Amino acid sequence: MLYDVRLELHYDYVASVHGDRHLVRVTPVSIPGVQRVIAAALSFSPRPEQETTFTDFFGNIVTTIAYSGYHDHLDVKLTARVQVEEQPPAADLSPTLPRLAEEIAALWSLAADAPHHFLAASPRVPLDRAITGYARDVTGRAGSVKAAAMELCLAIHRDFKYDKDATKVDTGPSEAFALKRGVCQDFAHVMIAGLRGIGIPAGYVSGFLRTIPPKGKPRLAGADAMHAWVRVWCGPHAGWLEFDPTNAMPAGVDHITIGYGRDYSDVSPIVGVLRTSGGHHAKQSVDVIRVE
């Protein structure tokens, strides 16, 4: 499947800012056998005085920008063409949960994709007794790690309501779990906390999702959004598999990956420091267009 992706992030500052530095993670990555970035371009307004690009520990593309002069807005624009490969259904080669612990212990690796990085609490995902108990309840009859992950994915979709006004970007999974409301970031964090709580390594995926309008309705430009889902380590034979609790499904050909991390803090679209005396207003626009 071939897609054209366009992203615009716009920030209006109440008062002029200066001396700001930002890390930007919005550029999709090429993943062998999964997706290929054919072309990608990232631009900023005003133009940064300093701009560099590097690959972080988890393999994500990070662009750094810096300004010394005063400015009252910041625009980030991404255009990319990405090919996503359809993955054939695979047999469940994941172990039982007790066996998984043995397989993790036998894996002597601290590479970026090693499960050891994704078992403990992380900056935005503490281990929570209530979430762990919930995960244990809904996965109790699952015969494998993959089945347990799918059960929790489906349960979150069933028991939580999508509500963009219920939470904020800094809302923690414990609060979102208590509300049983939130957005894709919240659902991903709750699922990650639940899986880690029962001993299954789980991480955060940032990306884009192509949305299809209702039959007979036109597609609205800019109506797509950045998205988040979960990757789960299902043993050395099955490897990492991805699940989307917001939509109760395995991640598929309509999911375009930007990057991986332990939680949102590792792959937030933009983070930085600046000098100012006021707040800001932000807008986001995303288009994911299938290329016939």
Distance between the termini: 9 Å
Pick out the low-confidence regions.
none
Q: H/E series, N to C? A: EEEEEHHHEHEHEEHEEEHEE
Main β-sheet, in a few words?
7 strands, antiparallel
Oligomer: single chain
Commentary on this structure:
With 292 residues, the chain is α+β, with helices and mostly antiparallel strands. Strand 3 and strand 4 form a beta hairpin. The chain is globular. The protein starts with a strand and ends with a strand. 36% of the residues are buried. The model has no long low-confidence stretch (mean pLDDT 94).
In short:
This protein is of the alpha+beta class and 292 residues long.
List the helices and strands and how they pair.
Layout: E1 2-24, E2 35-45, E3 50-55, E4 61-66, E5 71-84, H1 97-105, H2 129-139, H3 145-159, E6 161-162, H4 173-179, E7 181-182, H5 184-197, E8 202-209, E9 225-233, H6 235-238, E10 240-244, E11 249-250, E12 255-261, H7 264-267, E13 270-275, E14 280-290
Parallel strand pairs: 6-7
Antiparallel strand pairs: 1-4, 1-5, 1-13, 1-14, 2-5, 3-4, 8-9, 8-12, 9-10, 10-11
Question: What characteristics describe this protein?
Answer:
292 residues, alpha+beta, 7-stranded antiparallel β-sheet, 5-stranded antiparallel β-sheet, 7 helices, 14 strands, 22% helix, globular
